Amino acid sequence: MTNYLVVGAGLFGAVFAHEAAQRGYKVKVIEKRDHVAGNIYTKEVHGIQVHQFGAHIFHTSKKEIWEYVNQFAEFNRYTNSPVANYNGEIYNLPFNMNTFNKLWGVATPKEAMAKIEEQRAVLNGKKPENLEEQAISLIGTDIYEKLIKGYTEKQWGRKATELPAFIIRRLPVRLTYDNNYFNDTYQGIPIGGYTQIVEKMLDHDNITVETGVDFFDRKEEYLKEYAKVVFTGMIDQFFDYKLGELEYRSLRFETEVLDEDNHQGNAVVNYTDAETPYTRIIEHKHFEFGKGEKGKTVITREYPADWKRGDEPYYPVNDSKNNSLYKQYQELASKETENVIFGGRLGQYRYYNMDQVIGAALITVKNEFEG
Ligand code: UDP
Question: Ligand 1 mean position to 168 CA, how many Å?
Answer without folding.
Answer: 7
